[in-house]
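Honest question from a wet-lab person: if I give you the sequences of every part of a complex, can you actually get the arrangement of the whole thing, not just the pieces? Trying it with mine:
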Amino acid sequence: MAKSAHKYVYNFKEGDGKNKRLLGCKGANLCEMTQMGLSVPPGFVITTEACLQYYEQGKNMPAGLMDEIKKEMAVVEKTTGKSFGDPKNPLLVSVRPGGAMPMPGIMDTVLNLGLNDETVKALATLTNNERFAYDAYRRLLQLFGQVALGIDGEFDSIMSAAKQALNTTDETKLTAADMKRISEDFKAVIQSQTKTDFPQDPYTQLEMAIKAVFGSWMGKRAADHRREFNITPDMANGTAVNICTMVFGNMGNDSCTGVAFTRNPATGENRLFGTYLTNAQGKDVVASIRTPKEIQKLRREMPKVYKELEDLRHALENHFREVQDFEFTVEKKKLYALQTRNGKMSAWARVKTCNDMVNEALMTEDEAILRVDPKQLEQLLHPAIDKSTGAKPVCKGIGGSPGAASGKVMFDVDRAEQAGKAGEKVILVRDEAKSSDIYGFFASQGILTSRGEKTSQVAVVAREMGKPYVCGCKDLVIDFRARTAKIGKQSVQEGDIITIDGANGTVYMDTVPTVESEFVGDMLTLLHWADDIATLGVMANADTPEMAQKARSYGAQGIGLCRTERMFNHPSRLPVVREMILANSPKERQAAIDKLMPLQKEDFKAIFQAMEGLPVAIRLLDRPIHEFLPTQEEVMTELSLLKEFEETINAMEELPEAMRILDPSLQKFIPGIKTTLEAIHKIREQNVDKKLIRYKEELLAKVKAVAEINPMLGHRGVRLGISYPEIYAMQIHAILEAVAELIQEDHDIKPEIMVPQVCTLQELKWVHRLVTAINDSVTKKYKVNIAFKFGTMIEVVRACMRADKLAELAEFFSFGTNDLTQATFSFSREDAENKFLPLYNENKILHDNPFEILDIHGVGRLMKMTVELGRKTKKDLKVGICGEQSGHPDAVKFCHAIGMTYVSCSPHRVPIARLAAAQAKLLEKTLKYD
Amino acid sequence: MAKSAHKYVYNFKEGDGKNKRLLGCKGANLCEMTQMGLSVPPGFVITTEACLQYYEQGKNMPAGLMDEIKKEMAVVEKTTGKSFGDPKNPLLVSVRPGGAMPMPGIMDTVLNLGLNDETVKALATLTNNERFAYDAYRRLLQLFGQVALGIDGEFDSIMSAAKQALNTTDETKLTAADMKRISEDFKAVIQSQTKTDFPQDPYTQLEMAIKAVFGSWMGKRAADHRREFNITPDMANGTAVNICTMVFGNMGNDSCTGVAFTRNPATGENRLFGTYLTNAQGKDVVASIRTPKEIQKLRREMPKVYKELEDLRHALENHFREVQDFEFTVEKKKLYALQTRNGKMSAWARVKTCNDMVNEALMTEDEAILRVDPKQLEQLLHPAIDKSTGAKPVCKGIGGSPGAASGKVMFDVDRAEQAGKAGEKVILVRDEAKSSDIYGFFASQGILTSRGEKTSQVAVVAREMGKPYVCGCKDLVIDFRARTAKIGKQSVQEGDIITIDGANGTVYMDTVPTVESEFVGDMLTLLHWADDIATLGVMANADTPEMAQKARSYGAQGIGLCRTERMFNHPSRLPVVREMILANSPKERQAAIDKLMPLQKEDFKAIFQAMEGLPVAIRLLDRPIHEFLPTQEEVMTELSLLKEFEETINAMEELPEAMRILDPSLQKFIPGIKTTLEAIHKIREQNVDKKLIRYKEELLAKVKAVAEINPMLGHRGVRLGISYPEIYAMQIHAILEAVAELIQEDHDIKPEIMVPQVCTLQELKWVHRLVTAINDSVTKKYKVNIAFKFGTMIEVVRACMRADKLAELAEFFSFGTNDLTQATFSFSREDAENKFLPLYNENKILHDNPFEILDIHGVGRLMKMTVELGRKTKKDLKVGICGEQSGHPDAVKFCHAIGMTYVSCSPHRVPIARLAAAQAKLLEKTLKYD
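Yes, you can. This is the full assembly:
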């Protein structure tokens, strides 16, 4: 009993392949593959619990762990007929990390464990290949040195020197003697750096390697990765360690090692995709050091093995029902599967493979919907190079991760990170990108490398992040010292702007215009499945007929927010709006308003028509008056210019006389001056300048009068509407007349009127009385019956608190989470983002910028309360959200979970929200918010 | 059955004296007195429901009402042996309004109903007093004309003319013939104004009078009164009407009419207090027309009646167990009680009578506590004339309502109202103040009249409002036309400032300094009773040792809010604070901070000592940086002055030469100019001006850098603390060292550290780490153990939403309802109060200013949720409030109801809060907030 409670080690034959939390992703899949009967080298998993215990006990191995390991080792020894540390027939093992969430290339692996000065000789004898044996040994020494002992750099220089001595860059040119010497040198490095010898005892090696793997769970790279991908302890806690019998892809030309996807992770094509290296060991393929071969070449090189690989591909897909990314090694023609995991793919590939696998009955529609990360869809909508510009690429590499991006060239990870954090757009340009550079390219728009392959770790991560990546660009030559590069025939300095297109691997000088990609058919299919499942509606925020049209083409089910202030702000309208503001009497104000009304009516008609048959919620004017006026500084500058002008004119009067005295040669300029003066005098006779000065003075007075200490909390929205009833009356009139005219023309219009900044039912009543009165008069005038909905924005905290009262009159609520976030945090958005939010994010005081990512814990809790209160009064109250955060999948899921009716987001996020809404429905039982 | 559902009329013998809502206050008490066996003229009440029905039915008498009235009239006829409209023995009645809440003098009364051209003759015969009969008739005609027919003014001129003709001002000089003629004239007025005759039918008179009374419920005066006293429909809805047999105080010199309090309403003295007029009818006494006599004179004039009055006084107090304000009439030596109600009193009298009545076992301590309106206590704390100034009064009248006030003399109600609303302090100066002037003196600081008595309606209202009132000031002579007056020997113009002291009736020229009144013993007793009952603590907001001392003397149980920014703002500190802000390096900043630290420490020590043994919550710096800097405009002005100075100096260099040429007589000024220039040059050699300009330029740059768009939502509070850790570190250091030093001196100190503007637990953790570290070092340095509490302000909505999390670390919460109100409403206080709040209040969109009166429905609901969330984590979490609204009794009750631990308010509101806290405890079962 006590034993089962402390079981830390599971043989691949017994481990539960479903329990990734305990066994890690890699370990679980090794168990799964073993139990499927695939050819997996014998081995066992040390659980994540052991790792947590290790930390719990102050970085000490949990009691009994080594005993369990030895027991399992005995089983492996029995299976393989070899023995760990046996100087005759030694068992060699690999030690590989693997947590519950894949973190490719992030943590450290040690190969060839079990070799020492004795067993290496046995290996040489057994394989009859001394070079191979010592190559394996020096690899162990290097990996062990780096991973378990923390020695860096020196191993590489020794290897380089050895190759240089032979005047080659090809490792295979090194002889057995070279490898033997290198091994000795490596041991010397270890001795000199650690003051102890390389441990000859295999179990000492094993224990140290396991500890090192445990330790790398808390290393900077792993921590960075978890933060970037939001991997929290409840998703993955601790790493498992896989101990696996070594098989060797470097046993000669009938051996190889490779990585492959069961389908193409960039395009989704249903064909084995991958690369391999003949006579090489694992890390060589993924580490971008030697350029590997396309997997299709293996069909000719080892036809039988290729056939087995194809069988493996189908077996894996049939079993895991998802595209697999797997590693294999061929040791003397025998194929081994070393690991498999769900493949990371571009959005394109993800969508296509999901569609295909549904058609192949490998997965259901629901599963397909859950498999696509809505955030990835954004890639499909991301811009691509605009080919119509005729821009010519300066060079071409391999398309590692699709999408186009422009930015300043940076050669250095740290500088790229710095510039990126400072808000600059950066393209990281490197010879090879290592996964340890990861924190550098979080901050860049895209990556360009001279080496590397589509299957490299960097490409995998870049695709997942949707970062454009061009790799293997041979015409890129970097001079790090000078901080310059040649790209094709062009020279670039650090800081120059280039554009890359990761879809086809092209590189351009300067910024190249981009276009939005078209909707791919597979995505449309997926989104239609999604719409069938989702119960949460998806609307769009749109202020113009063009945006409305676009939103509709993206599948928006209506407009959840049409802002009228943008119409006021239009340059052609602004003078009239200012007339309205500066009016000295209600009559003057009405005159200006009368000019605005037909314009607004046309605005509304066009939007209504674009959304025919779908609801359109128009928000009455929200912004404070002063936003329609110039700033105090602007008017003051204009005024002082005008006054200076007066003085200058006066001075000019004297000028001709002065010129005459000064120098007769100036005489000829005098007529010109006089003509100018006469023209000016004519204008002045009409007092144009005086009037202008008076106007500007009035303007200045008004600007000062409407100035506010905290404008975001000021005289705006319904407060302004109640103070200047003519404005709202005009807007309501324009809306209802637009509807009436369209109804007369037989259109199907679904108007909604939405009141901003409401804090009490009384305000809503006030506007409602106005709406009712105007509706009566419009109905009478046009002799049509107008069906419209009347609702309120919920963006003031008090509106949340009084939601039960507001719901007495409001037919719908729409959360304005921009303002609501501001009020909930008492953060002024601009001030916060300029002053302290970066510091807050850095210090982990706030994880996200709540103006970008909905703050579910605070604002969300308030929203939940509000929905509950509102529905208490009106059971089927329509509730939506129209803040900027609303297109984010997490926000969509939250809105579904609290029973909202719809989200309304910017048009290009509509597809994302549609998919997220379907996922929310499918996952609703697991969505828990407190 | 149908009848009981529609019963609109109750005889005094049957009405339920407890049901004031139905019968009105006056009607219910008439029933009560009748049923007690007191001598009340027979009559009945028409219910408030009848009034509501009247409005419901578009101002028509409810069906069946007149029938019920006639039925009850028959009962009264039977009791009195007289008959309504009987030309032989006519029954006369009064028609008096009276709602559930007393509105003294606000609504209209009609007397002597039932008189007409016939019955007046019968009355003359029966009383053998023709003058009396026609006096009664002309009174009916006048009152009916004014109240039921809306005729104003002319009646008074006819009376005046009649008196003038006799060369008298005394009405009693008018003969029967005069009265007869006046009656005829009055009827003619009615005919000419309404084109119909005065109705001779008594029931027509009655129905019209009842309708008029119903109508006056919605009149301007009544509406103003209800608004001013916050009388809402759930407190009083509609007026009842009392129909009561007339008794006559004007039946000769053995008759009189009077009003009295069972105890002195100004001082609380336990002695009959009131006034009467011999041979006069009701309204004469209260209307301030004839100056009435002190009630004690009646002891000699009618000893038997006086004895009966004393009995009545005791009977009323024993029954109602509260000081009564009653009306009586003596008709030919027979005493009748005409109405009674709970007496309105000055705060002094209220407190004293409550104490006395507890001692007399007429009420319990609990009842005494509930009887005093906490808001009234403010009067006791209001200033009185500072006698030490030796200011001499210019005249002396009667103290109508205690308290001292200064303001501009205004003779006109409308102008007083206008000036008052514009924010000026006004003393309304009138010959006589009518209750219809009420809206004029809402706006004034105090009232001064040449006529009138302590018992007048105006005095009653003034006392209730706590407005100083000096009446009966015979040395006041007003010339309204000229808008001047003589006060004693002094002439004053409208707009001149005077000071009045309503405690003793004195009037002073100009503003006279005032002192705060001393705590009266009775109030202390009451407050001690209150403290014994209350469970809600009362703390004070205090930033200085003086305020702390004062708060303590007012009974504060500690300091709930000590703001540290006020210490920063002190003129002597500001330069150092600016040094800190302008520092160009952390080192420079630290240097400035090091100067501030000992100063802050001394601040804290002094406050801690003042509050020895009681908790003191110190709030770390809250205000945004820019509040410690001059404004951009200020610095720009200074800079341009400095630059102009430079130019002027240069110009001065040329001056002596120019002077010499211009006029030799100017020569003598040249040495002076040169000396000045030399002095300036010396300073300039040290570059003082250049340095100053550079400093100002740096200052300007900083001012611009810290400027914020919405400073209330900006870089302040804990956000600032986290951005500039040195500042909070200094403050925490100063607090803890102050405590440590005091502990060493054996003081009992209870420090609390409070963090402002918190929105997430992470912020609190950040500060807590700082506090812990500093505490460790201080503890080590002083070798003392410091027990302190660590808590958070709750003034950001997100803090409310995360209260459960915050309570994990915070030992107490303190609601900052100023900021919280701002965030809940999204109202910037200054902007709202200047721009739209007045409009909102006027239009009833918001009833109150939420920055003055806690918004229980919105902010309150949020607070309730917060307390619940916080207590979920920490069952006994200490929760308080320190916003400005917290001293208001309604806020105190609310805080008690939601289970808060304490309120913290400004020192002078502490007694109010103590009393309110006790009331809240006593009423807790009735306090319902949703």
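Two things worth pointing out. The longest strand of chain B covers residues 334-342. Chain B touches chain A through 50 residues (CB under 8 Å).
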